[in-house]
Design brief:
This protein is an all-alpha fold and 157 residues long. Helix content is 82%, strand content 0%.
Length: 157
């Protein structure tokens, strides 16, 4: 029986060390996934919340989109800069690159969202949720290779 316990301990240790090794090897990607989950949750909450508050006041769903995007982009920039990529300085340069990526998507969003709502009869909240998937998939590559590339890292990274 003690041999079985020793075997289990070794396999558990191997599994733990493998997971730890994978985490260390891909630490930035894990941080991106965590920040992405937080940013996505924030973004998925902010649009419907603002829509439910502002639509009864007569604010068009596209104006709600603009407001929610401004808030969401700024929130995401902070999490990417300080948590994921851990860069120091260069705020204006990084924010302009970060913003350019999101403005392109915002332009596409302003075309695609009304099309989905009017032509395909999607609920604006559902359509916006579906559109967010494209942003999630492509943003890591853009920000890793363009926005935060070749900048100084914090000393503790």
């Amino acid at each position: 029986m003690s041999n079985l316990w020793g075997h289990w301990k070794n396999r558990r240790h191997y599994l733990f060390s493998t997971c730890l090794s994978l985490y260390k090897k891909h630490e930035k990607k894990w941080r991106y996934l965590i920040a992405g989950a937080i940013n996505t949750t924030f973004g998925l909450i902010i649009y419907p919340a603002l829509y439910l508050i502002l639509e009864p006041l007569g604010v068009n769903y596209l104006h709600v989109l603009l407001i929610s995007q401004a808030i969401g982009i700024s929130f995401a920039f902070v999490s990417h800069k300080y948590f994921v990529f851990k860069t120091i300085g260069h705020i204006k340069r990084e924010y302009s690159k970060f913003l350019s990526f999101h403005l392109v998507y915002l332009g596409l969003n302003l075309v695609i969202l009304p099309y989905m709502v009017t032509s395909w009869k999607f609920n604006p909240m559902v359509a916006q949720t579906l559109f967010a998937v494209a942003v999630i998939v492509t943003s890591y590559f853009w920000h890793n290779r363009i926005t935060f590339k070749s900048l100084e890292k914090r000393p503790y990274e």
